[in-house]
Design a protein that fits this description.
The chain has about 270 residues and is of the alpha+beta class. It has helices at about 115-130, 140-160, 170-185, 190-195, 200-210, 215-235, 240-245, 250-265, 265-270, and strands at about 1-5, 10-15, 30-35, 40-45, 50-55, 55-60, 65-70, 75-80, 110.
């Protein structure tokens, strides 16, 4: 079922299985997704890489991920756009800058079990029923239910990732850094630029990443550039030179050296692989 509002708000919930997954569009332009797998052996290609997901795993995918369904046995799908929800939660931990979506180079996987499983099922069912209501309160109710689901997923993800012991300010700093990288990685490739935007020193940023067990901030920038490079090489016919300039490199040679250092293979060879 789909909700479409007067201000371009988009919200959708679907049940997907082996009989109907080929008829679903894996991507809706500008939409963020939650996929809840209800069986083992579900296969997706995300940004050119095959992934397998099993019973009661939930993954979150941003609008930047390229998704293809290889095989879906049983799955619930929820997706929404920024007009529906993100404008309400710019700085929220459970918004579109929250931990489920702030780092497109990484796919968060939440494992649901125990009491949380029943709570999640109830939240999903109530949201499903609310989609059938057609009154002036529907949009607000759907937004509330989506926030409830995102809060549940965020709590479980933080618990599973041992994030409960991490200082919120440190975690927020990393989240903001990654969000800024997402907005600016095509233009700015240095940690110092993002540190300036956050009114922090590069050393503070680097130390914070280290304290919470993340890869270095420079590697986070490089990973995002590489992810976009691979997407453009795999899914478009753009020349390597065009991709290089689109991603902020001054020369094709500089881009090729960067790509080979990160991937161990040249951009041209990657495209042929």
């Amino acid at each position: 079922m789909i909700y479409q509002g007067k201000q371009n708000e988009y919200f959708e919930i679907q049940s997907v299985d082996n009989d109907n997954y080929r008829s679903f569009r894996p991507i809706v332009s500008g939409a963020l997704q939650l996929l809840w797998f209800l069986s083992d052996g579900n296969q997706l290609i995300i940004d050119g890489i095959s992934h397998s997901f099993n019973t009661n795993q939930i993954i979150s995918l941003s609008q930047h991920h390229h998704v293809e369904y290889e095989n879906i046995n049983a799955m619930k799908m929820l997706r929404f756009n920024s007009e529906f929800y993100c404008v309400l939660n710019h700085d929220s931990e459970v918004g579109c800058k929250g931990i489920l979506y702030y780092t497109p180079a990484k796919i968060p996987v939440v494992q649901i079990d125990g009491p949380e499983l029943m709570v999640m099922a109830d939240a999903w069912d109530v949201t499903d029923m609310e989609l059938e209501m057609r009154d002036s309160l529907q949009l607000e109710m759907l937004q509330m239910q989506l926030k409830r689901i995102l809060i549940l997923c965020t709590r479980m993800y933080k618990k599973q990732g041992d994030m409960a012991c991490i200082d919120d300010k440190q975690h927020d700093l990393v989240r903001e850094f990654n969000f800024l990288v997402e907005k600016n990685f095509r233009e700015f490739h240095s940690v110092s630029h993002y540190a300036d935007l956050l009114y922090k020193s590069p050393k503070t940023i680097t130390n914070t990443f280290k304290k919470i067990g993340e890869k270095s901030p420079l590697q986070a920038i490089h990973d995002r550039i590489m992810l976009e490079s691979k997407r453009l090489l795999h899914y478009t016919k753009k020349d390597v030179s065009e991709i290089a300039y689109e991603l902020g490199f001054e020369s094709v040679q500089g881009f090729s050296r960067f790509f080979k250092k990160q991937a161990g293979i040249s951009p041209s060879d990657f495209r042929l692989s």
